[in-house]
């Protein structure tokens, strides 16, 4: 039996209307029947575009939202419907690392207080002295100096704050850590460090992760198994390498085709599958296959009427598509959508009404241009399709002590400039030294 098993998990949020009577007039089907297993010591990566229900699923596992239906089985116990009193013991065993490290740390508490709060609540450590020793040990593991204890979150850079977030989960000795977009608020150079840290901790401490992310490169790098979500359901699940080598669901194919390759020659040949239309509302999902309204391979039978089950096509490669085998064998041709060269010139020719999977045609243009620029500059790319800049990033960028040197080290490591599963991004000695220095510097300010 797997350490964590989800069986048909549904989370439906009621949509209320009316001032006096607050009638329920519908539901948002945020998570609509997800089954998956996370093996002990492994990482399950959950990927999908914004609004597909990833975060809600993570929160449902932690019981931060109510599960409408289905089972969440941790180590043999269904925690989805456990009474709150019994749930307390299980809360320690399921921990979360949040997307926004600053927002998830109380600015008025110092690091010792933040980290020991949960320990005291769960009875870890006989007294504060014992807890402090444990915290120091964990801080060292996440690459922060022991003198961080009396400092406050604002005194750290974005990457360091995420290390504190990871330490906060680790001090509770959890069975499973859910990482919700663990690096998307961080500068790209810091992203690789945090991902590497998560991997190192997994190796040394035997941790089990459920990593939620919209960024395919991040998920690929860290995951053993990847599940692709679309509108509240899994459309494909496979061992990481198999999924990237041969995506079988039309949605996954389109998602993969949107990932820029920072090699100009490959990028020149890359074709992008453009999907028609927007993501439908989870309050009013299409009948039949949820993806059929945008599917370039949609057929006249089944697709609009019957919801496909997630079916194993061999080797643990599961696909929820009535025609996945035929599409893979090339027996079915595309019926809609467009395939265009992903490079600048090709994208400019595309009808601007056609909307791409993870953004607009303009974004596809930007992705390709950015990738080409990055490759020219020899920089690493942990592609960040959102391209958002956050306060945390600004902090890292502005902080001369922050571990910026690691970015160059990462670039040197990634020969083809991309974060590759087979080629882990490592910090070389200099980078480690600079990182250690950077870790200590703000604390010493
Ligand atoms: N408390 C809530 N009440 C009603 N609808 C909600 C609630 N929380 C989330 N939703 C809706 O459920 C859907 C899934 O949201 P969720 O945040 O899980 O998606 P996501 O894939 O994590 O997206 P993002 O990456 O943008 O956070 C969205 O349409 C969202 O508006």
What does this structure look like?
The protein has a domain of 225 residues: P-loop containing nucleotide triphosphate hydrolases (Rossmann fold). It contains 16 helices and 14 strands. It has an eight-stranded mixed beta sheet, with helices on both faces. Strands 2-1-4-5 form a four-stranded antiparallel beta sheet. A two-stranded antiparallel ribbon has the order 11-14. β4 and β5 form a beta hairpin. The longest helix has 18 residues. It is globular and about 70 Å long. It binds adenosine-5'-triphosphate. Adenosine-5'-triphosphate binds next to β2 and α1.
Please, what is the CATH homologous superfamily of one domain?
A: P-loop containing nucleotide triphosphate hydrolases
Assembly of the depicted chains: single chain
The low-confidence runs, each spanning 5 or more residues with pLDDT under 50, are 344-445
Instruction: Label the structural class.
Output: alpha/beta
Ions, cofactors, ligands: which are bound?
A: adenosine-5'-triphosphate
* Annotated CATH topology of one domain: Rossmann fold
**Roughly how many Å is the radius of gyration?**
22 Å
Number of strands: 14
Q: Averaging pLDDT over every residue, what do you get?
A: 79
Classified by CATH, the class of one domain is Alpha Beta
CATH level-two architecture of one domain: 3-Layer(aba) Sandwich
Percentage of residues in helical conformation? 25-40%
Major sheet: order of its strands?
6-7-8-3-9-10-13-12
- List the total number of helices: 16
Distance between the termini: 49 Å
How much of the sequence is in beta strands? 15-25%
Family: Belongs to the ABC transporter superfamily.
GO molecular function: ATP binding; ATP hydrolysis activity
Protein name: Peptide/nickel transport system ATP-binding protein
Keywords: ATP-binding, Nucleotide-binding, Transport
């Amino acid at each position: 039996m797997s350490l964590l098993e989800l069986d048909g998990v549904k989370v439906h949020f009621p949509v209320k209307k009316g001032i006096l009577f607050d009638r329920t007039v519908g539901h948002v089907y945020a998570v609509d029947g997800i089954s998956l297993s996370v093996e002990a010591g492994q990482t399950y990566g959950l990927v999908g575009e914004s609004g597909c229900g990833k975060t809600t699923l993570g929160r449902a596992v932690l019981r931060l939202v109510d599960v409408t239906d289905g089972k969440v089985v941790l180590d043999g116990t269904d925690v989805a419907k456990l009474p709150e009193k019994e749930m307390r013991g299980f809360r320690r065993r399921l921990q979360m690392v949040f997307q926004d490290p600053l927002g998830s740390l109380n600015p008025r508490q110092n690091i010792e207080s933040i980290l020991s709060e949960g320990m005291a609540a769960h009875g870890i450590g006989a007294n504060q002295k014992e807890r402090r020793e444990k915290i120091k040990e964990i801080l060292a593991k996440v690459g922060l100096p022991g003198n961080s204890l009396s400092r406050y979150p604002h005194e750290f850079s974005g990457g360091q704050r995420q290390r504190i977030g990871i330490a906060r989960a680790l001090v509770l000795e959890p069975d499973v850590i859910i990482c919700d977009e663990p690096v998307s608020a961080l500068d790209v150079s810091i992203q690789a460090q945090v991902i590497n840290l998560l991997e190192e901790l997994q190796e040394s401490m035997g941790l089990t992760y459920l990593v939620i992310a919209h960024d395919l490169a991040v998920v690929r790098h860290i995951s053993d198994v990847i599940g692709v979500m679309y509108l509240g359901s899994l459309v494909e699940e496979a061992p990481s390498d198999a999924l990237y080598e041969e995506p079988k669901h039309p949605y996954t194919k389109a998602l993969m085709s949107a990932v820029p390759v920072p090699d100009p020659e490959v990028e020149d040949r890359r074709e992008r599958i453009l999907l028609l239309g927007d993501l439908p509302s989870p309050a009013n999902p299409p009948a039949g296959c949820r993806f059929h309204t945008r599917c370039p391979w949609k057929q006249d039978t089944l697709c609009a009427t019957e919801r496909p089950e997630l079916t194993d096509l061999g080797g643990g490669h599961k696909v929820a598509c009535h025609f996945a085998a035929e599409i893979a064998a090339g027996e079915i041709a595309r019926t809609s959508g467009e395939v265009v060269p992903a490079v600048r010139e090709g994208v400019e020719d595309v009808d601007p009404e056609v909307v791409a999977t993870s953004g607009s045609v303009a974004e596809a243009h930007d992705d390709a241009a950015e990738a080409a620029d990055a490759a020219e500059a020899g920089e690493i790319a942990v592609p960040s399709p959102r391209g958002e800049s956050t306060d945390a990033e600004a902090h890292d960028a502005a902080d001369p002590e922050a571990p910026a040197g690691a970015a160059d080290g990462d670039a040197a490591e990634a020969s083809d400039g991309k974060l590759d599963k087979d080629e882990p991004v490592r910090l070389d000695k200099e980078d480690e030294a600079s990182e250690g220095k950077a870790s200590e510097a703000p604390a010493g300010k």
